[in-house]
Amino acid sequence: MGNRLTQIATRTGDDGSTGLGDNTRVSKNSLRPHAMGDVDELNSHIGLLLCEPLPQDVRELLGDVQHQLFNLGGELSMPGYELLKDDGLLQLDNALAQYNAQLPRLVEFILPAGTRAAAQAHVCRTVARRAERQVVALQEVETMRPAPRQYLNRLSDLLFVLARVLNRMDGGDDVYWKSERLARLAAGE
Hints:
The structure is a single chain. By secondary structure, the protein is mainly α. The chain has one domain. The protein is about 60% helix and about 5% strand. It has helices spanning about 30-50, 55-75, 85-100, 115-140, 145-165, 180-185; strands spanning about 15-20, 25. A hairpin with a 5-residue loop joins strand 1 and strand 2.
């Protein structure tokens, strides 16, 4: 495993490169640092979501997710190393089943809106999708196990579901897209 930083301003990245956990250096604009950065950004957005009033079970779940994302970032920083655990994906699958069971079926697209917590969950969802795309791009040029991609895919689904749950926390609802086509169909046009 790579060395832990004992100082932050190392100046080693001034040339446009960054060090990976295996002590190799790559361009900051290469696929691996992009994927690492998006996972880090996602973790930061989840930290912001945790500043909102949340049900305790959601708070605990998101805390676990932050640890798994840190593991995922570590795995991305060390080619060939495995830190993301299989039980993390299982936890997401179980949470998806639990929270989906509480929600009514979607009848229309919803907007990323509602309460602050729900809106922030949607921001997290979109960053998770971007991180997933970066991991897919990386996996197209490097051999990697599927777990990082699967985790981010499942997490983005969970964040969508949690946004719906959070909008209902105090008796609210989803914010539905007002489709002109569907309105015309409903009016019999």
